[in-house]
Amino acid sequence: MSNRRGLLLVVSAPSGGGKSTLIARLLKQIDGISFSISYTTRKPRPGEMHGREYFFISEEDFHLMRKREEFLEWAQVYGNYYATHRNTVETILARGEDVLLDIDVQGARQVRRLMPDAVLVFILPPSFDILASRLRQRALDAEETIRQRLKAASEEVKAYAEFDYCIINDDLERAVQELVSVTMAERIRPRRLRNTVDAILSGFRSCE
Ligand code: ADP
Ligand code: 5GP
Question: In this structure, which topology does domain 8-199 adopt according to CATH?
Answer without folding.
Answer: Rossmann fold (3.40.50)
